[in-house]
Structure formats: structure tokens, C-alpha cells
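subagent[fold] <- orchestrator: predict structure for attached chain, return C-alpha cells only, no commentary.
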Amino acid sequence: MMEAMVSLRWARFLLLLVLLAACAPAPQTPPPAEARVEGPVSFYPKETGLAWHYLPEGLPLDAPRYTLRVEGLGSFEGTPGLRYRFFGRGQDRVYYRQTGDDGVKLLGYEERITLSRVEFDPPFLEYPPKSLLQVGYQWGGKSRVKSYFALPSGIVKQAELTLDYRFEVLARREVEVPAGRFLAYVIRFSAKGGEEAIESELWFVPHVGEVRTREGLVLIDKNF
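subagent[fold] -> orchestrator:
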């Protein structure tokens, strides 16, 4: 799944959206352990209470971590969606997604620290229908990406660009991350917006989620 836009390059790519240069961890108390979630997990995990813990690739396991947690139903600009809160290491944002027969769509997200908001129009297609997720399949599209700040005087538009993005399933193979070994879909992601272009690789495991994200975060633990 699109869990953390944590690198300075990614932040600049999405319009210098939320001044994410402050990516270094601030002093913090280790978060309490997440309660275990029992029961079946969807192909694209969406059950309330599910939590994943990540670190940038290469950091020691005792470094401050990021957490992604499904917080339940919500609404983004009047459109219903599932809330996924991503926090830790000086970050705190809420993603709004729709997951159904047509795949996983990212509507947008809210930055709690900078009081800003990013919208995708049409929604960013993170994953296709599960029946199509197989080696060789490609998907993508174009979205208008708009960012706003919430100021005392009202909502102020910060920037806007057209994001042209593409995914391709390169392989399905065993991968290893600190959380364990998994049989994952290896997916190449590429995108261009304005003058910026990026390419990265992510690893998705059905009924588990992303064990390596587009931003180079690797899974170190989960609560299911």
C-alpha cells in the first residue's frame, strides 16, 4: 500500500507539499505495543485495527519507527473512505483510501503537523482488482495533485500539478525483511510530475500488505 512520503525528493516531487525536510526522528517515547488483531485479513488489508511498523531500509531495528494503522471509516472532502494513519519519526498524516472490487484508490491525505491537505483527482490507483495482480500486469494513469494549507484566514491553495504514474508487476518471489520472509509481488513504480521523475520498487504480499514501500521503508513488525 502508499504508506509514507518521507524522503526529501518525494516531498519535492509532490509539489514541495508539506516541508518534509524534517524527516530526522525527534526524541520520543517508544510507542505502546499494538493490540493483536485476530481473524481473516483481506487480500488488500483494510480491517480496522491492523497495524504495521516500518523503518527506512538499513536502519538498526531499535531506531524510532513509523507506524501505519487502519483507523476505520471516514470522509475526505465528502467522499467516504478508510482512514489509514501514518505516524512516527516526526510524521503524522492520515490517508483516505477506497478498497473494493476495482482495487485500491488513494483519495488524498491530511498532514496533521503542517495542517495541509493533498488531493488526487481522479483518485490515485495504488492497486488494481486483485484478479489482475499477476506478473507482467501494468496499470497507471494521470491525476491532478493539489495541495492546500489550512490558515486562520481559510484554506489556501499551495500548488498543483499533473502526476503521470505507472506500475508494473516484475516478478513474484520470496523476499526477506526484518519482519520475516514472504512470497511477494515485486512491483516497479515510476512517475513524473512537473520537472521531477522518480522510480522505485515495492513488495506487496496478499493478506499482509506492503513489506517494502515505494519510499524504501521495510516492514519490521505487524499486529496480525
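orchestrator: received. Logging for downstream: The CA atoms of residues 54 and 186 lie 18 Å apart. The longest strand covers residues 154-177.
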